[in-house]
Amino acid sequence: RNSFFQLLYLMLVSTFHSAIIYDGLAILRLHDPHSYHLPIPLIICSINVLTFLIASYSNPGIITQKNVKYHLSFYKFDSVIFRRGDVCSTCKFMKPARSKHCKITDRCIYKFDHYCVWIGNAIGGNNHRYFLLLLFTLAVM
Ligand SMILES: [Zn+2]
């Protein structure tokens, strides 16, 4: 793991969002100086950066020897994809349903989705909502 893509994301977002906000606010002020729309781009950009930081540095749902029993109770084993008794060959404990071993972070992740190079973290059950909010605010911007 390195921070190259995280820094690149923050640089791209800050550069382009600053330009858009600067130009957009100038146009909005020109047409309607008392517009209530003025703080909206700043709020959305702030939420975007905040969710980026939370998704990047939060625990995605790492399963450890201590919390594996807690995660085993979340989802039922369907005996098709997730079979009771499957053991992670790396972590050496029983894999909870809907969990997967992330090869990049080298940890079993609860509700593993993928490893995102842009946030430099795995997307799992604990940070999935922040990642989706990050994508939503990015699309809105
Ligand atoms: Zn594992």
TrEMBL record:
It holds the Pfam family DHHC. The chain crosses the membrane at residues 7-30, 36-57. Keywords: Acyltransferase, Membrane, Transferase, Transmembrane, Transmembrane helix. InterPro entries: Palmitoyltrfase_DHHC, PFA4/ZDH16/20/ERF2-like. It catalyses: L-cysteinyl-[protein] + hexadecanoyl-CoA = S-hexadecanoyl-L-cysteinyl-[protein] + CoA. Residues 84-141 form the Palmitoyltransferase DHHC domain. It comes from the Eukaryota. Signal peptide: none annotated. Its EC number is 2.3.1.225. It is found in: Membrane. GO terms for cellular component: membrane. The DHHC domain is required for palmitoyltransferase activity. PANTHER family: PALMITOYLTRANSFERASE, ZINC FINGER DHHC DOMAIN CONTAINING PROTEIN. This is Palmitoyltransferase. It comes from Helobdella robusta.
